[in-house]
Amino acid sequence: MSGGPPKKVPRTRMESITQFLIDWGYWGLFLSALIAGSVLPFSSEAVMVVLVGMGLDPVWCIVAAALGNTLGGMTCYWIGTLGKTEWITRLGVSTRQLARARKFLSGRGALMAFFAFLPTIGEAIAIVLGLMRSNVWLTSGAMLAGKTLRYIVVLATFQGALTLF
Question: Which stretches make up the VTT domain (predicted)?
């Protein structure tokens, strides 16, 4: 026995932010997904899995995450509409990622925003669609469909994995 209260382990900044977002429920999930959909690195999937594990409605979690992540992705689209590649590279999207996204999108249109959920290249896809001035409504609709499907797959995979234990 140590003879005193247990020592509090300090949290990292990311753990504190994640806990704050979890405490806010659906709105926290929306915000975490918005952050994750932008050029800032974050894992909204972890927040969603914790919230569903705590008993929040999985359908509403998917809705909050998909809408937030789409809005975050559309901030990348907006950055692309500014048309300044040097600004884009300062945000952490490399010229190589932009070139890969341009090649991926060449000859295709706004519906390619469906693939904005892809890791690493997703933000670049949205930015290039903005640079190309693709139809904003088709872009956002396709992006919403792709991101919704991704969250459904993540949640189904997590819940399926839980049944193994």
Answer: 46-155
